[in-house]
Structures are given as structure tokens and as C-alpha cells.
Design goal:
By secondary structure, this protein is of the alpha+beta class. The chain has helices at 75-79, 85-98, 102-107, 117-137, 141-144, 198-212, 267-281, 295-306, 311-323, 374-381, 384-394; strands at 3-5, 23-28, 40-50, 57-74, 152-159, 162-168, 181-183, 189-191, 227-230, 242-253, 327-334, 337-343, 351-357, 364-366. Strands 1, 2, 3, 4, 5, 6, 9, 10, 11, 12, 13 and 14 form a twelve-stranded antiparallel sheet that branches. A two-stranded antiparallel sheet has the order 7-8.
Amino acid sequence: MLFKHTQAKMVGRCVVKTCLVSFILLGFLTGSTPLMSAEIEPKSYPIAFPMDLTVDYVPISLQIKCDVKQYDKAFWDFASKQNEKQESRLKELVFAIDNNDVNKCQDMTFLEPGINEEEILKIKKGVKWSVRGFRSWAFNDAVAGENLEKLKVFNQFYLGKSRVFILGTKEPPGCRPMLSFVSGANGTFMWDMRNAGALKSLLGEVMRFEAVATPNVVPLENRKFDYEVAIPGTNDTEHVAYLEFNGEKYDFDVFSDTIDSPEKPTDEVVAFFQKKYLMLRDGAAREDLAELYTDKSRERYLKSIKEPVSPAYTDKLFKNMATVKRRVRFVMDAKPLYIVFYQPSEWGSPGYSYIIRDPKDAQLKRTNFHCSGFLDDLFLKLRFTDSLLRLLTSER
């Protein structure tokens, strides 16, 4: 199912597990890979929002739900009992990196069909530097132990046709190297050193939040949300991954509609979203809009209007904001973050804006101005925004 809407409201709180260093490996399944279905369970994990892309993570009411196999084993215990092809390849790659076996790592590296010799040489050179990097800050004796005795395997995520393993140790906090596997022509899992998909980026941030959070993050068993929407790229597979969230649908024109008496909690957010456009329509100076932003975003906003890269483009942009209709279609309620999805016109491409209740003063503010993070990869690269609004429209 691509989309599910329920009336259940959010209950419970997120709790946290010890995983301060993680290694993420991603692989695409072939039909021949045996699965231990009895050990695979659907679980949900909380997402944190890096406001203004700083190191300060703000916990929000947004989750990723996917199938997971839990290990919580020492690496050596895991290495002696693996049952799936991707588990064996994980063991091989960890040993190859730990032993500084660059040739082995190069042999395990995925090469796209048809690439030329020059590109192959670049990839092999990149493998050499990657192995050196992993050994210097992740597989060194202080972190993983002289014989990997400090290393643990926590779980394996099933994301559509992808597999993601999470490994870790207790120190240093927040250290999370990411390794990827894809299936080769013969079904053998190969290391895709350059893989950087949006879904992997999202999961990486979820795991990074686990690493820096105190205490530790565990799956949420009983928390309920109004919506769960399949993440593009995983639908039509055995293991669909979902984004779970609350929210309200709207059909609100920022220039002609008003909210005089808020009835829903998100009405205040819509009115705040509208404020920027009404100020510009009514002739406010561009500097006046700075008050609408969080601190770091305010700095970037003021710099963008005082030192524009293209004055002509900036003028056109502000004229557009003051005149072109925008209709709010949905507000994702991920307290304290709100994501407003809108369309510039009846047929325009959808957009979105981040509004957060600033932890400093509890006031609504626009945030992440000129920032692009893991949620943006999800909304744009995987076209989640298009999928969400299309599904909500079909519900009418």
C-alpha cells in the first residue's frame, strides 16, 4: 500500500539505544537471496531535524518506518553465524578494510557497465583513499579494538530492494561512516563506494541522531500517526519504507483567504506562512522580512539581499512572491517543526517551506533558509512532495 490515512493520534514518546559509531552498508537484492522472514519486523524510528544545518538536532514528530532485523551482537559473533549473502559480504568488506587490503576492496567495488578506463582508474584511486580514511578514523585500534573486539552489529534495515547494516562502538560519538553495496551482474553484492541515495541519507541522519542523543534511540512500538506514505523507490517491493507523520489538508490562497479564528493547531502556522507574502504585497522592505527567520537563517537571508549573486534574479524573485498566487495544500505537523506544502498556481510545481517553533523563544519562525539537507533530498530527489500532494488530492 502506497498511502494510508488513519484517525489515530500520536501517543507515546521516543526512547533511545547505545550506538555511537555506525557503519552503514547498502545492497540491492536479487530474487535468489534467502530471507529469514521470521526475524524481520516492521519498526519505526524517530527523525531529528538539524535546524539551520547546525550540530544541534531538534527531535520532531516524524518517523521512518521499515522492516528491520535486529542483531545486537559482537562483530565476531555475527561473522561466525551469517546466513544471507549480504551478511557474508559485510564480513568480507570489514575484514578487507581492517587488513588494509586495498586490492580486495577494489575487487569488491561496483563498476557501472560501459564506463571507460579513465573512470575505472578514478574509482580505484577513490577506493584507496576511502580505505585509508576508514582505517584512520573508524577502524583504528582505539575505536574498534586491535582485533575488532569493540565492534558490534546492531541491525539490518530492509529498504525496498536495499539492505542497510548498522554497526558501531561506543566512541567517538557521532562517528558514522557509510558503506554501500549493490548487486552485480551475477547477483554478487558489490561495494558501491559512490552511492549517495536520498533514502540512505535519511537513514544516515536517523542513525546519526541516535549516536549523539543521550540516552540512546530505540524503535517506537506504539506511536500512532495520521498518515504513512510510501517513500518513492521502495513501493512495489516486498519491503516498503514509509514516512509517518501527522498533518492537515488545506486549500488556502495566501492572498485572498484569511484565518480570523484559528480552529486547528496548524491554522496558526498557515497564518504565519501567509504573513511573508502579505508583507511583500503591501510594500514592506525586504529587510523587514528578516524578523520572520531563525538566527542563522536571518543572517543568510540578509546577506542574500545585501549581496545578491544576481540582482536581476533577486528582483524577479521578490516580485514573484508579491504577486503570484500560492495555495497551501498540506501542513505536515512534526512538532516543533511544521512543513508547509504549497502550489504556486493550480498547475504549478509544488514547493514547501520549513517553519519551526524556535526553542529559544517558542515563536514560529521560518528556518533553513538556503540550506539543503536530508529531508530536501527526500522531498526533491525522490519527488516525495509530488507523491504526497497527488495522493492527498486523490482523497478529495
